[in-house]
Specification:
The protein is α+β, with helices and mostly antiparallel strands. It has a single domain, classed as Glutaredoxin (3-Layer(aba) Sandwich), CATH 3.40.30.10. About 55% of the residues lie in helices and about 10% in strands.
């Protein structure tokens, strides 16, 4: 059994691109039953206020990109998404939000062995529906759709439950030198950063097999 920790944020487009590439690599090698995935929290915008910020304004402020550069980058993401089987929908009036509560729910969902299901649903909420991953109702809808108990999720969102655990995981990633996502950590030995192609993940998985004599 191999473990893969994926450090990511639900508002990171390269995270879903990288995951889809990893998924293809696992399928190609027939390793579905030999992989244990775990999603680790990373906040791209930890200081983002509750109301969020206009995406275009945020990108200009944070990265200094012009509208033309932003448009080109967006198209690149759309194209890469289609290559790995994921369809992005970027509304012109999109916003960037705080994602801390989403990470608290993801930590909780791991106990139900449905962390990946919730993570993928949250990606869809943000990237396909233009939804707000910090909104309680939106988060509870995602929870309900994958069959997790809504009352328990609501209780978590209305408290500070799992806040310290999420902070601890974020601090661990910082100590590991992770400053950008996605970061895929294989068996605590190898790390792949970014939304790499399937072949990169195939290579790492084969190396792990070789080391274990599989």
């Amino acid at each position: 059994m191999h473990t893969i920790d994926i450090v990511s944020d639900v508002s990171c487009p390269w995270c879903i691109i990288g995951y889809k590439s990893l998924q293809s690599a696992i399928k190609e090698l027939g390793k579905d039953s030999d992989i244990q995935l775990s999603w680790k929290p990373f906040e791209l915008n930890p200081q983002m206020p509750v109301e969020g910020q206009d995406r275009a304004e945020h990108i200009k402020q944070k990265y200094g990109l012009s509208p033309e550069q932003t448009k080109a980058n967006r198209q690149n993401l759309i194209d890469r998404g289609l290559e790995v089987g994921y369809e992005f929908s970027f509304p012109d009036a999109g916003r960037v939000y705080n994602t801390f509560n989403a990470h608290r729910l993801l930590h909780w969902a791991k106990g139900y062995a449905q962390q990946t299901e919730l993570k993928l649903r949250l990606f869809d909420l943000y990237f396909q529906q233009g939804g707000n991953p910090s909104d309680e109702d939106a988060l509870l809808t995602c929870v309900e759709e994958i069959g997790l108990p809504v009352p328990e999720a609501r209780e978590i969102l209305q408290s500070n439950r799992y806040a310290s655990e999420v902070r601890a995981d974020e601090e661990l990633s910082q100590r590991q030198g992770i400053s950008a996502v996605p970061a895929f950590i294989f068996d605590n030995k190898y790390m792949v950063s970014g939304g790499e192609a399937k072949e990169v993940f195939v290579s790492v998985l084969k190396e792990l097999e070789k080391e274990l004599g599989e």
